């Protein structure tokens, strides 16, 4: 392993692609850990800082507000500085935010630190999937980009395990552990190559060719792919390009998934899993330990999803299982089935919902968003995808506990079940199958009007004929 031009490591073919995906996905690990650790730390923070329900929601949601800002800003930065440097900026913010949050002695400083961590998470969620997608071969792009989501849920699981193991220690240590992966991400990215598509879009054709030749099986495959990139090459497009009719199907599919991924309730369950289990009759220690099982379930579901997206396709149909699980969960709370068998019904329903949702909708969000946009506005489009995700996440994290107080847990989970059912219909109607297609092929489908899985004009004509 040697150092090459632009600080990149001298690996070749699949080895370099795997190395790139692994190091980049560390951003997802931080994403998951820093968003997940609050569910365990919150049990201590509430006592130390005397937080009421609103205070707990604000501390929890500060990171989401930061992420919303970070992902929108990251689009322009990645267009100007490149994908790799943008990830390095996010890594630096992870380090700064972690130091501040671990040393916070007031609610205001705690919120500020969570905002900084949010900026890092927003930037990572916007750019890491694009970076991996733009450097991966079509036949492996699905599993490699899903590796980012796998890192996210692994980070969540690690945060749950850490929270349980450190339940009798300081919450500061819980947060401080995040410095290690942040340092790995920053140092590792310094040795990786730039995205070949970003290089081509910025007129650095020969540099793009060199990168592609290192990450493809043969020079002929690399040169053919570069020809396809240049054939569709355009200048960086302004934000207004996303509103044009030919780009709109990509916008609807990707942002729709981003919004529904949150409104289906997956992060609400993740953030407040210990609280849910405590309300079901488990003690605090048991609630934390049971949450670890939720995280492990998310990891296995994502591993399965990573296999499925390249073998079954992106439009996997597991959401009906999530609907059933949420109906059962809502019924358990509506009937006050707490303690004993009722508590374990709650655990089983939460586990089933987590697996079904994570293995379908949550796997697709970053992958589809990184695939469907034309190169000229891909970074800005992904900013909207990440913005939709974090905006919806902010709403959910700010309202879940209050929603449970107003509607009751039963109606809250039934409401999430209805959204999951709608999401199933939406995917079938608006999200295309992208398995095995190059990013340039998908761009051509946008331009020739064959992108959407259902031809709306043909559907209207058929309905009128009836």
Brief rundown of the structure:
With 466 residues, the protein is an all-alpha fold. 79% of the residues lie in helices and 0% in strands.
Please provide a written account of the structure:
The protein is mainly α. The protein has one domain: Growth Hormone, Chain: A. The protein contains 19 helices and no strands. It has helices spanning 13-49, 53-81, 83-102, 107-135, 138-165, 171-176, 179-189, 196-201, 205-215, 219-231, 248-263, 266-279, 284-311, 319-334, 340-371, 378-407, 409-430, 439-448, 456-465. Helix 1 (13-49) packs antiparallel against helix 7 (179-189) and helix 2 runs antiparallel to helix 16 (378-407). The longest helix has 37 residues, at 13-49. Mean pLDDT is 82; it is low at 1-10 and 456-463.
What's the SSE blueprint?
Layout: H1 13-49, H2 53-81, H3 83-102, H4 107-135, H5 138-165, H6 171-176, H7 179-189, H8 196-201, H9 205-215, H10 219-231, H11 248-263, H12 266-279, H13 284-311, H14 319-334, H15 340-371, H16 378-407, H17 409-430, H18 439-448, H19 456-465
Helix pairs in contact: 1-2, 1-4, 1-5, 1-7, 1-12, 2-3, 2-4, 2-16, 3-4, 3-7, 4-5, 4-15, 4-16, 5-13, 5-15, 9-10, 11-15, 11-16, 11-17, 12-13, 12-16, 13-15, 14-15, 14-17, 15-16, 16-17
């Amino acid at each position: 392993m040697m150092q090459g031009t632009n600080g990149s490591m001298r690996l070749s073919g699949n080895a370099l692609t795997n190395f790139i995906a692994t190091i980049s996905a560390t951003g997802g690990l931080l994403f998951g850990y820093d968003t997940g650790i609050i569910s365990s730390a919150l049990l201590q923070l509430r006592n130390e800082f005397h937080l009421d329900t609103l205070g707990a929601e604000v501390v929890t949601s500060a990171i989401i507000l930061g992420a919303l800002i970070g992902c929108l800003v990251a689009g322009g930065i990645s267009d100007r500085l490149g994908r790799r440097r943008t990830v390095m900026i996010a890594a630096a913010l992870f380090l700064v935010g972690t130091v501040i949050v671990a040393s916070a002695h007031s609610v205001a400083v705690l919120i500020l630190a969570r905002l900084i961590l949010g900026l890092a998470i927003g930037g990572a969620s916007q750019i890491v999937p694009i970076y991996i997608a733009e450097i991966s071969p079509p036949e492996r792009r699905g599993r490699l980009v899903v590796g980012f989501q796998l890192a996210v849920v692994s980070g969540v699981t690690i945060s749950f395990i850490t929270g349980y193991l450190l339940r009798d220690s300081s919450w500061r240590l819980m947060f401080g552990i995040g410095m290690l992966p942040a340092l790995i991400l920053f140092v590792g990215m310094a040795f990786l190559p730039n995205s070949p598509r970003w290089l081509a879009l910025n007129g650095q054709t020969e540099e793009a060719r060199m990168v592609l030749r290192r990450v493809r099986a043969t020079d002929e495959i690399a040169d053919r792919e570069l020809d396809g990139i240049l054939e569709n090459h355009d200048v960086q497009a302004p934000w207004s390009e996303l509103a044009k009719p030919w780009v709109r199907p990509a916008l609807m599919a990707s942002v729709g998934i981003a919004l529904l991924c949150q409104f289906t309730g997956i992060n609400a369950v993740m953030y407040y899993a210990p609280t849910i289990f405590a309300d079901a009759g488990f003690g605090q220690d048991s609630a934390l330990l049971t949450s670890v099982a939720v995280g492990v379930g998310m990891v296995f579901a994502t591993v399965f999803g990573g296999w499925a997206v390249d073998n079954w396709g992106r439009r996997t149909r597991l959401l009906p299982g999530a609907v059933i699980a949420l109906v059962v969960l809502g019924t358990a709370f509506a009937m006050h089935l707490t303690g004993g068998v009722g508590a374990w019904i709650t655990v089983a329903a939460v586990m089933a919902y987590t697996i079904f949702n994570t293995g379908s909708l949550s796997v697709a969000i970053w992958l589809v968003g990184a695939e469907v946009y034309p190169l000229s506005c891909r970074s800005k489009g992904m900013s909207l995808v990440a913005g939709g995700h974090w905006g919806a996440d902010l709403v959910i994290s700010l309202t879940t506990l209050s929603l449970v107080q107003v509607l009751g847990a039963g109606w809250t989970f039934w409401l999430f079940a209805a959204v999951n059912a709608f999401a199933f219909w939406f995917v079938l109607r608006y999200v295309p199958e992208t398995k095995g297609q190059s990013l340039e092929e998908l761009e051509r489908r946008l331009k020739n009007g064959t992108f959407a899985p259902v031809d709306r004009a043909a559907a209207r004509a058929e309905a009128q004929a009836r």
